[in-house]
């Protein structure tokens, strides 16, 4: 279930604009291809669920309009965030790590 993005109509693969990143990531739980899931809250907190284990971190948008995450005690990452669109509807988000170039998709549950 997604919130607040049903009225958006971006193209598949389009960059999520800075002002839409908070709406995009908090729209619903994301499920990744490896079976993990993640939620993002409007207050900047995030929870990652992997094989019955939950870890807590934070997310933000930097001055360049990039999505950033922090996982204590020291892991930080920055991403280009893109829309995943199928049949004209937003179904997920694509994260492209700026450091490693690794990409992964999260689909809204």
From TrEMBL:
Organism lineage: Bacteria, Bacillati, Actinomycetota, Actinomycetes, Kitasatosporales
Record-given protein name: Uncharacterized protein
Organism: Streptomyces carpinensis
Highest taxon, organism lineage: Bacteria
């Amino acid at each position: 279930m997604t919130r607040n993005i049903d009225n958006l109509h971006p193209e598949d693969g389009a960059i999520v604009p800075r002002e839409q990143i908070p709406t995009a990531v908090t729209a619903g739980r994301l499920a990744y291809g490896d079976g993990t899931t993640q939620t993002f809250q409007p207050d900047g907190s995030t929870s990652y669920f992997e094989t019955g284990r939950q870890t807590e971190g934070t997310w933000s948008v930097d001055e360049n309009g990039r999505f950033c995450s922090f996982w204590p005690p020291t892991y930080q990452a920055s991403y280009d965030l893109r829309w995943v669109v199928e049949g004209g509807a937003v179904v997920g988000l694509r994260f492209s790590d700026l450091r490693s170039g690794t990409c992964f998709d999260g689909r809204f549950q």
